From TrEMBL:
<keyword id="KW-0460">Magnesium</keyword>
<dbReference type="GO" id="GO:0009117">
    <property type="term" value="P:nucleotide metabolic process"/>
</dbReference>
<dbReference type="InterPro" id="IPR001310">
    <property type="entry name" value="Histidine_triad_HIT"/>
</dbReference>
<dbReference type="GO" id="GO:0016787">
    <property type="term" value="F:hydrolase activity"/>
</dbReference>
<feature type="active site" description="Tele-AMP-histidine intermediate">
    <location>
        <position position="108"/>
    </location>
</feature>
<dbReference type="InterPro" id="IPR019808">
    <property type="entry name" value="Histidine_triad_CS"/>
</dbReference>
<dbReference type="GO" id="GO:0000166">
    <property type="term" value="F:nucleotide binding"/>
</dbReference>
<dbReference type="InterPro" id="IPR036265">
    <property type="entry name" value="HIT-like_sf"/>
</dbReference>
<feature type="domain" description="HIT">
    <location>
        <begin position="10"/>
        <end position="121"/>
    </location>
</feature>
<comment type="similarity">
    <text>Belongs to the HINT family.</text>
</comment>
<feature type="short sequence motif" description="Histidine triad motif">
    <location>
        <begin position="106"/>
        <end position="110"/>
    </location>
</feature>
<dbReference type="Pfam" id="PF01230">
    <property type="entry name" value="HIT"/>
</dbReference>
<keyword id="KW-0378">Hydrolase</keyword>
<keyword id="KW-0547">Nucleotide-binding</keyword>
<protein>
    <recommendedName>
        <fullName>Adenosine 5'-monophosphoramidase HNT1</fullName>
    </recommendedName>
</protein>
<dbReference type="InterPro" id="IPR039384">
    <property type="entry name" value="HINT"/>
</dbReference>
<dbReference type="InterPro" id="IPR011146">
    <property type="entry name" value="HIT-like"/>
</dbReference>
Length: 152
């Protein structure tokens, strides 16, 4: 049972069994099930048993429990059989906020088999022009933020 639960959240209801799901692996902190609108066969969702809309809302112990479940699911889906860069692959996707394509406001990781160009995740990647001076300045700003974070 999740510690933080939201009575109106569809994924909290799935965790509690109040609405049905095609369950796969479940641990004390993680739940996984088939996506009902798959982008490719084997499209799976993996969720923490903790209600939070965005990744930063989820405690570390829930996040630590979740990624090994994703790894086990790659085996269940036989996505681990191709160790070469060519041929079938898979994507892990985790959206935060409407602008980032999040629809359900309970953190979820998509595991999406990528078997061809037409199914699975299709990515837009608008790489921006930059230069080392600009990146260096940004890096300095981030290092200051990191120092503050370390003092917390
Ligand atoms: P996102 O755009 O990252 O918020 O993705 C939400 C995902 O949840 C979509 O891929 C939906 O198909 C999926 N979804 C929504 N409701 C359910 C449900 N009841 N059971 C399984 N998957 C669901
Ligand atoms: Zn929830």
């Amino acid at each position: 049972m999740s510690i933080a639960s939201n009575a109106s959240c569809i994924f909290c209801k799935i965790i509690k069994g109040e609405i049905p799901s095609f369950k796969l692996i479940e641990t004390t902190k993680t739940y996984s099930f088939l996506d009902i609108q798959p982008t490719s066969e084997g499209h799976v969702l993996i969720i923490p048993k903790y209600h939070g809309a965005k990744l930063h809302n989820i405690p570390d112990d829930y996040l630590s429990d979740l990624l090994p479940v994703v790894r086990k699911l790659t085996k269940v889906l036989k996505l681990d059989e191709n160790d070469t860069p060519e041929g079938e692959g898979y994507n892990i996707l985790q959206n935060n906020g409407r602008i980032a394509h999040q629809i359900v406001d309970h953190v979820h990781f998509h595991l999406i088999p990528k078997k061809n160009d037409k199914s699975g995740l299709i990515v837009g990647w608008p790489a921006q022009e930059t230069n080392f001076e600009k990146l260096g300045k940004f890096h300095e700003e981030l290092k200051k933020e990191l120092e503050k974070e370390e003092k917390l």
